[in-house]
C-alpha cells in the first residue's frame, strides 16, 4: 500500500483502476463482443500509449492489469516476451509492442484519424519518435542513477541537450503540437514520459524550453490525457516501491 498520498487525490486517481493479476491467477475468458482487451500495468508509460489512443478514438475496451513482478503463466500466451502492453481482439488475435498496437488501433477503427495520411509527414513523425527513444533512455539513466544514489548532473545535462533538439523541432514546425495544429499520434506517443517529469526530477528543464512547456500545458487539457492521467504523488509512491523491487508496486494505492 502506498503512503504519503492524500485520500481524496488517491481515490480520484485510482477510481478507474483494478488490481493486477499475479502468478496463479486464472486467465480471463474470451474478449467480449464489441470490445477489445488491453493487457496493461497501471503505471507503465508504454502501456499508457494505447490507453491514450483508445480514449482519443472512443474505442470500447477492457483493461486487464498484469503484475510484472509476478506474471501469470498464461500471460506469455498473450505476450511472448511477458511485456505490456499487449492487445487481444474478440477473435483471438494478439498484437504487442506499443507503437504497433497504436498504429493498428488507428487503422482498424475509423474516425478521429491520429496519424497523417501524407507519407512524408508520417515519416517525419517516425523520425521524431526515433530521436525521442533516446530521450526515454536518458530519463531512465537519471532514474537509476537516483536509485543508486549517484550524481545525476551529467546525465541530466544529456537529457537537456536532447530536449533542446525537440524544442528546435517544435519551433521549426511552428505549431502547438508535434503533430501539427491538433493533438495526434506522435503527441500521445511522447506524452507518458512528460507526465512523469516529477518522477525523473526534470521538471525544471521544461521552463527552459518554452515551446515544449506550452505543449506540455496544452496536453494536460487534452481529454484523453485527463482520462489516463495519474497524479504525480501517486506516481512517486509507485516508483518508490518499484525501486525497492516490491511485488506490491503494481497495486500501489489499492485496498
Automatic annotation (TrEMBL):
What keywords are annotated for this sequence in UniProt?
Answer: Oxidoreductase, Transferase
- Write down the Pfam families for this protein, in alphabetical order: GST_C_2, GST_N_3
InterPro entries attached to this UniProt entry: Glutathione-S-Trfase_C-like, Glutathione-S-Trfase_C_sf, Glutathione_S-Trfase, Glutathione_S-Trfase_N, GST_omega, GST_Omega/HSP26, Omega/Tau-like, Thioredoxin-like_sf
Alphabetized SUPFAM superfamilies for the sequence: GST C-terminal domain-like, Thioredoxin-like
| Single GO term (MF) | glutathione dehydrogenase (ascorbate) activity
Indicate the segments forming the GST N-terminal domain, all copies.
Answer: 34-113
Q: Keyword Transit peptide on this protein?
A: no
List the GO terms this entry assigns under cellular component, sorted alphabetically: cytoplasm
Where the record annotates domain GST C-terminal, the positions are 118-236
The Gene Ontology biological process terms listed for this entry are: glutathione metabolic process
The chemistry this enzyme catalyses reads:
RX + glutathione = an S-substituted glutathione + a halide anion + H(+); L-dehydroascorbate + 2 glutathione = glutathione disulfide + L-ascorbate; methylarsonate + 2 glutathione + H(+) = methylarsonous acid + glutathione disulfide + H2O
Q: What is its EC number?
A: 1.20.4.2, 1.8.5.1, 2.5.1.18
Free-text function comment from the UniProt entry: Exhibits glutathione-dependent thiol transferase activity. Has high dehydroascorbate reductase activity and may contribute to the recycling of ascorbic acid. Participates in the biotransformation of inorganic arsenic and reduces monomethylarsonic acid (MMA).
Q: Which family does it belong to?
A: Belongs to the GST superfamily. Omega family.
Protein name (Swiss-Prot/TrEMBL): Glutathione S-transferase omega
Amino acid at each position: 500500500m502506498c503512503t504519503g498520498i492524500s485520500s481524496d487525490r488517491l481515490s480520484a486517481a485510482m477510481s478507474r483502476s483494478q488490481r493486477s493479476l499475479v502468478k496463479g491467477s486464472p486467465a480471463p475468458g474470451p474478449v467480449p463482443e464489441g470490445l477489445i482487451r488491453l493487457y496493461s500495468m497501471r503505471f507503465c508509460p508504454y502501456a499508457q500509449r494505447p490507453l491514450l489512443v483508445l480514449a482519443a478514438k472512443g474505442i470500447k475496451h477492457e483493461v486487464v492489469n498484469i503484475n510484472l513482478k509476478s506474471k501469470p503463466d498464461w500471460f506469455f500466451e498473450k505476450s511472448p516476451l511477458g511485456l505490456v502492453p499487449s492487445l487481444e481482439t474478440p477473435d483471438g488475435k494478439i498484437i504487442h509492442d506499443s507503437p504497433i498496437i497504436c498504429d493498428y488501433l488507428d487503422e482498424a477503427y475509423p474516425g478521429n484519424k491520429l496519424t497523417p495520411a501524407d507519407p512524408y509527414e508520417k515519416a517525419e513523425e517516425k523520425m521524431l519518435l526515433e530521436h525521442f527513444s533516446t530521450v526515454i533512455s536518458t530519463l531512465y539513466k537519471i532514474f537509476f542513477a537516483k536509485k543508486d544514489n549517484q550524481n545525476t548532473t551529467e546525465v541530466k545535462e544529456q537529457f537537456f541537450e536532447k530536449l533542446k533538439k525537440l524544442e528546435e523541432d517544435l519551433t521549426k514546425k511552428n505549431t502547438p503540437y508535434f503533430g501539427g495544429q491538433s493533438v495526434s499520434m506522435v503527441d500521445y506517443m511522447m506524452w507518458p514520459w512528460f507526465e512523469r517529469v516529477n518522477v525523473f526530477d526534470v521538471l525544471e528543464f521544461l521552463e527552459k524550453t518554452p515551446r515544449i512547456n506550452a505543449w506540455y500545458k496544452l496536453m494536460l487539457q487534452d481529454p484523453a490525457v485527463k482520462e489516463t492521467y495519474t497524479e504525480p504523488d501517486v506516481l512517486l509512491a509507485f516508483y518508490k516501491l518499484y525501486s525497492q523491487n516490491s511485488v506490491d508496486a503494481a497495486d500501489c494505492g489499492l485496498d
